[in-house]
Amino acid sequence: MNSEEQMLFEKQAEIIKAIGHPLRIAVINFLQTGPQCVCDIAEYVNSERSNVSKHLSIMVKVGILSYTKQGLKVIYTLKRPCICKFLGCITDCLVQQHKEDGKILNAL
Description:
By secondary structure, the chain is α+β, with helices and mostly antiparallel strands. It has 5 helices and 3 strands.
């Protein structure tokens, strides 16, 4: 592997790490419906605004989300909606794993 590939893999890992928390995945799921203020995101994920803000900043830092300020409100948007396809792929993996586990149990 050359240095450019190494750098690419490291950047990809940063993004995967940034979504590697259930609350962050829930935020991405919620933002699929459109831009939302941090107050509505916090309510959706049932967490304190300060905690949600920390998670949001991690995803902003790696370029998954963007935000704008509207008066006192901060509105977050999925900057890279294609991340939802990645999460959909993970769901497909889970479904397949469940089917395979069921086949193993049936064989017993």
